[in-house]
Design brief:
This is ImmA/IrrE family metallo-endopeptidase. This protein is mainly α. Helices cover about 55% and strands about 10% of the residues. Helix 2 crosses helix 3, helix 3 packs across helix 6 and helix 5 packs across helix 6.
Length: about 130
Amino acid sequence: MTYSQMRWLAARLGVSVASSEDMDDDTAGVYCETTQSILIDRNMTYRQKRCTLAHELVHWEHGDQACTPMLKTKAECRTRRETAMRLIRPTEYASAEVLCDGHPAGIAEELEVTRQVLDDYRRILHDTIPA
């Protein structure tokens, strides 16, 4: 799903999405349960915006009040996992891995996701494959 499609879906679900140039350096996006709104950093790349909006929409779906990524809360871990699974399809990942010879930066670019989302997806794969 593209960034524009996610914005359209959010609007249909009653979630307001806006962008701002005045966000903290460490903040890509925020979701406010009280106002049912998402704020995205306007200065990010398309891939960053796409991944951030997907991430914040997962917070919305779960009605998360507040998340502090640095604390690695249960809600934040769940949100990162679900974001990765929604943005990366197994068949597309497999094709990108072959096409890019396993290079993470190339795979992330091919899949239009950030390295963090790709790393989260790879962690999920690692954790689900029996040793």
